[in-house]
């Protein structure tokens, strides 16, 4: 007869008639409690909610007022015990109830080890006597692992890429550590030329820089693929800028480049207008203003009518009604030549935009630093 059966009977039914017999019964009971507890520990339970549920189940089994093992002992052993045995039973019973080695399941389970070994054991069937082992409860909640999300700058980048991919462009990339030849010379920015100063360059040595823009990949791609060429080039760029709310020494650009026969400024305007409408909504208008870049001729700055206030003036467009999007222009014939493409046969357009700035405008974020500080409270919002 197991102890679980014994607690359903009176001492008289069990034939226990002296203090020694009582002691032996309680010893058996204590041993069983300890075994159950040890078994629970060996099963392990790696996460807190699961541990709490196991712990509660065990406590209920033993300590529940109605039907718990101890209340059965009270009902069947203590209450009906004869005068001579009652003091012995009472003493043993109280000891068991208070006993620190006996029934402090809760404390013990809290201290349960969480090593991977234990977690692994969880996957195995119980090694001990299967008739007594409770079946594993498959309805217990699983482990909750918090999910990350895509960084807002990455998300912006992908959104822009998507639009150009649909137009038949391909994605190209190039090195972040770049030669002065690709970063400057091949883009029509000779060493002596003052426009080199427009890029606050981080030099590694006299001929090597951290690329200040994604434009050098224009040349690399022309060399690699020749014409016709339709690519966008997303990537990190670096400049010797002090970090503030609009500057970061590392930032992201996307370069666009289209080279083919008979490419005109109208193609550039049409493509960028389509792009702006896809990104900001059908309603927006684009504005092209003349500008200067050494690698494009003519060059332009593109702005889009504010998608928040529709050009009325608001915080996002700084009351101007317009949001500056990018620099662009027709690829300079010398740049085509530097890339090994014949400017008499081919022409092209190019643009360069700041992805971080796009993400700031899109989400009304006023400090670029927030993107790179890794503060979960900020990143969780996206
Ligand atoms: N590379 C320029 C910059 O970083 C941006 C740019 C302007 C790229 C005009 C272009 C372009 O391709 O045509 O400031």
Number of helices: 16
Q: What would you report as the Rg, rounded to the nearest angstrom?
A: 38 Å
DSSP strand content? 15-25%
Helix content: 40-55%
Bound molecules: 3,4-dihydroxyphenylalanine
Q: What is the spatial order of strands in the main beta sheet?
A: 1-5-6-10-9-8-7
Number of strands: 10
Q: Stretches where pLDDT falls below 50 for ≥5 residues?
A: 113-119, 121-131
Distance between the termini: 63 Å
Describe the biggest sheet? 7 strands, mixed
Average pLDDT: 87
Class derived from helix and strand content? alpha+beta
3D shape = rod-shaped
- List the secondary-structure elements in sequence, H or E: HHHHHHHHHHEEHEEHEEHEEEHEHH
Can you walk through the features of this model?
A hairpin with a 2-residue loop joins strand 3 (202-205) and strand 4 (208-210). With 382 residues, this protein is an alpha+beta fold. The chain starts with a helix and ends with a helix. The protein is rod-shaped. A seven-stranded mixed beta sheet has the order 1-5-6-10-9-8-7. The protein has a three-stranded antiparallel beta sheet with strand order 2-4-3. The longest helix is centred in the N-terminal third of the chain and has 25 residues, at 19-43. Helix content is 40%, strand content 18%. Helix 3 (19-43) runs parallel beside helix 6 (86-98) and helix 5 packs antiparallel against helix 6. It contains 16 helices and ten strands. It has helices spanning 3-6, 11-14, 19-43, 48-63, 69-78, 86-98, 100-103, 105-110, 116-123, 152-166, 180-183, 216-225, 265-280, 333-338, 355-363, 376-379; strands at residues 170-171, 177-179, 202-205, 208-210, 229-238, 250-260, 286-293, 296-305, 322-331, 347-354. The structure holds 3,4-dihydroxyphenylalanine (DAH). 3,4-dihydroxyphenylalanine (DAH) is lined by residues 213, 215, 255, 293, 296, 327-329, 350-352.
């Amino acid at each position: 007869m197991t102890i679980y059966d014994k607690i359903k009977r009176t001492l008289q039914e069990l034939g226990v008639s002296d203090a020694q017999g009582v002691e032996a019964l309680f010893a058996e009971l204590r041993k069983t409690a300890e075994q159950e507890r040890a078994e629970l520990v060996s099963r392990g339970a790696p996460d807190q909610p699961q541990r709490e549920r196991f712990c509660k189940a065990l406590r209920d089994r033993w300590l529940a007022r109605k039907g718990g093992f101890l209340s059965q002992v009270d009902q069947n052993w203590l209450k009906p015990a004869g005068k001579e045995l009652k003091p012995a039973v009472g003493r043993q019973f109280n000891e068991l109830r208070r006993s620190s080695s006996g029934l402090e399941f809760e404390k013990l389970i809290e201290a349960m080890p969480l090593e991977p070994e234990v977690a692994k054991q969880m996957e195995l069937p119980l090694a001990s006597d299967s008739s007594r082992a409770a079946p594993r409860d498959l309805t217990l909640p699983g482990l909750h692992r918090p999910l990350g999300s895509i960084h807002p700058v990455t998300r912006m980048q992908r959104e822009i890429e998507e639009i150009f991919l649909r137009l038949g462009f391909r994605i190209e990339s190039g090195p972040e550590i770049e030669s002065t030849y690709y970063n400057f010379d091949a883009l029509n920015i000779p060493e002596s030329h003052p426009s080199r100063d427009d890029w606050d360059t981080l030099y590694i040595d006299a001929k090597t820089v951290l690329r200040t823009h994604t434009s050098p990949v224009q040349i690399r791609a022309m060399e690699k693929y020749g014409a016709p060429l339709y690519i966008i080039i997303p990537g990190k760029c670096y400049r010797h800028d002090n970090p503030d709310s609009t500057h970061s020494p590392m930032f992201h650009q996307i370069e666009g480049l289209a080279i083919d026969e008979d490419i005109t400024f109208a193609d550039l305007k049409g493509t960028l207008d389509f792009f702006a409408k896809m990104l900001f909504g059908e309603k927006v208008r684009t504005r092209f203003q003349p500008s200067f870049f050494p690698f494009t001729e003519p060059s332009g700055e593109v702005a889009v009518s504010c998608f928040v206030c529709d050009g009325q003036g608001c915080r996002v467009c700084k009351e101007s009604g317009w949001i500056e999007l990018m620099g662009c222009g027709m690829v300079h014939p010398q740049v085509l030549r530097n890339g090994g493409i014949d400017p008499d046969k081919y022409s092209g357009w190019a643009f360069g935009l700041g992805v971080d700035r796009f993400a700031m405008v899109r989400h009304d974020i006023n400090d670029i630093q927030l993107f790179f500080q890794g503060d979960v409270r900020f990143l969780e919002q996206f």
